[in-house]
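Lab notebook page, bench 4
Experiment: in silico fold of construct C2
Operator: M.H.
Input chain length: 106 residues
Purpose: comparison with the prior construct
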Amino acid sequence: MISNFISIMAQTPEVEPVGLFPFPLPIHLAFCIISLIFFVARFVSEKHIYQLILAVAIPLSLAIHVSEERLPFYALGIIEGILLLIAFIAYLFRKKKPEEEQESNS
C-alpha cells in the first residue's frame, strides 16, 4: 500500500507552490469590490461604524499582491486582525434602533 503511494507520487509532476495568497488576483479583486459595495451600501442605510471598518478592511487585503516578502504579509495580517477586532467590538457596542430593540425583546 505505501509502496504504491510512493510510486504514484514519484510519477506525478511537481505542483507549483502557492503564493502568499491562495486566490488569483482577479478573483480576489472581484471579492473585494463586491464586499466594498455591500458594506458601503449597508453603512449608508444603517449608519453602523463596524460596516465602514469592514468596507476598508476587506479591500485592504489587496495589498498582499504588492510584495512577495513575508514581513509585509505578516504586517498586513496583524493590521487586518486589529481591524476585524475593532469591527467586532464596534458591532457589540453599536446603538440599536428602536425597532431592533423590539425584535430582540419579543
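Observations: The mean pLDDT is 81. The helical segments are 2-11, 25-46, 49-60, 70-92, 98-105.
Next step: discuss at group meeting.
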